[in-house]
Amino acid sequence: MKSLSKKARLNVIGYILLAPWLIGFIGLYLIPSCMSIYYSFTDYNLLNTPKFIGLSNYIRMFTKDALFWQALKVTFVYVLVLVPFRLAFALLIAMLVNKKHKGIGLYRTLYYIPSIIGGSIAVSVVWRQLFGNNGVFMSLAAALGFQQKTSILGSPKTALFAIILLGIWQFGSSMLTFLSALKTIPNSLYESAAVDGSRPVYTFFKITIPMLTPTIFFNLILQIINGFRVFTESYVITDGGPLNGTLSYVLYMYKRAFNYFDMGYSCALAWIFVAIISIFTVALFWTQNRWVYYESDAK
Predict the structure, then answer these.
(1) Half-sphere exposure of residue 175, counting CA atoms within 13 Å on the CB side?
(2) Where are the alpha helices (DSSP H) in 196-299?
(3) CA separation (Å) from 45 to 42, 51, 248?
(4) For the segment 165-186, what is each residue's pLDDT rounded down to a tens digit?
(5) Going by C-beta distance under 8 Å and a sequence separation of 6 or more, which residues neighbour residue 18?
(6) What is the pLDDT of residues 240-256, one digit of tens each?
(7) Are the beta carbons of 181 and 126 closer than 8 angstroms?
């Protein structure tokens, strides 16, 4: 170490400190990703030796696999419905708790709890019981005189929306992000608007929303990615049913890999999944200059 220059010694120390992360990244992400790419071009069932078959898995996916399109449809519906409602609800609650009231800290904590436990298996089981044949909602409907032969989770037309409702309930992380952003908006802007006689609706759309666009952009990307990755809810509550009405894309990948032992095809599904998320992310970044307002841009 003494023969090394000061810059070289600092570089060595830096790499030593980075070693745990680098080992984890290479061993748990980089190598498995490279193996997954290779397996996507093979016929591999976890038991035999992978057999290279070129683009056959991808051709089969787009031309012969109806469940691929069904899983893609379910996932897109889930994301397109979930994300706007979750963000709108999170912003609404953030604005309500962005006021000085007695016990407001407790309210903020209570609103955040669903995001901590919302994705757990236990909550999914509870959700299945709530919307099942003997659940609260069916009992309530019967008490009100609505005789339903099929539960909410038993119908392909309504089961997905029960799962979406669970996703909307997990708005806590977005709420906290909006809350922190609301606290950075200068009160002088609202005071000036009040002097000019602006109504609350006008103030919301002309001051609050423009100042929140960077946070909306951040939350939008995170929630779209999380929405595409939905798995636990579909797996535990309905297992993709009824009639594949809640078959999410990740759940379909899981079933191809571990129910049908079609690992090569599942890896191909995974990389198409990565491409879809990447396209959405790049598209959002490409459009941000048109609707996201940064204070630094105004200087």
Answers:
(1) 26
(2) 200-203, 209-228, 232-233, 249-254, 263-291
(3) 10, 10, 22
(4) 999 988 888 998 999 999 999 8
(5) none
(6) 989 999 999 999 999 99
(7) no
